[in-house]
């Protein structure tokens, strides 16, 4: 049984897609996409030998060896032009790592119609990468599973019509519009942590670095208060 999180990622993969799942671990996501008929073929990429072997084993056991190619490679180096990839999924890593995988592999994104990304933290890094590289946010989603909250970002080629502002970069333009209960819960949790850290920084010795970090936190707290005040 696939996690609710990966099932949600799968929902955003376009029908008939040729998928590259980067950091695939057990290759559960591509196996699911092949079995349910969403994807026609897939590549599962892994940088670490152990998970790569797990992916190979899973694909073999599910009888999908003719449809899923498992490759041991860093990031988008798992993708070759002949694969004809139309969708890339990257899930279960930090947003900064996902953004760096996209940055390093952007030469391999030709023909890709959709990036479906699920950062565990720091989705902002992905929104910033998108803004700098001519991709726009086609959809965003947020879900909670076993007490953890996850964001999903769907990017498509073509720049945003209007540049995202600081609030949209941090909270997500679509998530801001939706303002679901899970969204509110996520940012209330974050704000509690930010306030605690800001307080500690206030009491610490005031070096340049400490001052900057505190200011950045206070800026984020102010943005958050604006978002929640907008509601009323
Ligand atoms: N995508 C799966 C999921 O969402 O359940 C697995 C997530 S697992 C926490 C992250 C996986 O990404 C690990 O198996 C790790 O080896 C792999 N990984 C980390 N950095 C990578 C990179 N630069 N290229 C390919 N795989 C990477």
From TrEMBL:
InterPro entries with a match to the protein in the record: SAM-dependent_MTases_sf (IPR029063), TrmK (IPR006901)
The keyword Methyltransferase belongs to this UniProt entry's keyword annotation: yes
Pfam families xrefs: TrmK
Any Gene Ontology biological process: methylation
Domain of life of the source: Bacteria
Alphabetized UniProt keyword annotations: Methyltransferase, Transferase
GO terms of molecular function: tRNA (adenine(22)-N1)-methyltransferase activity
Name of this chain's protein: tRNA (Adenine(22)-N(1))-methyltransferase TrmK
Organism, as annotated: Planococcus maitriensis
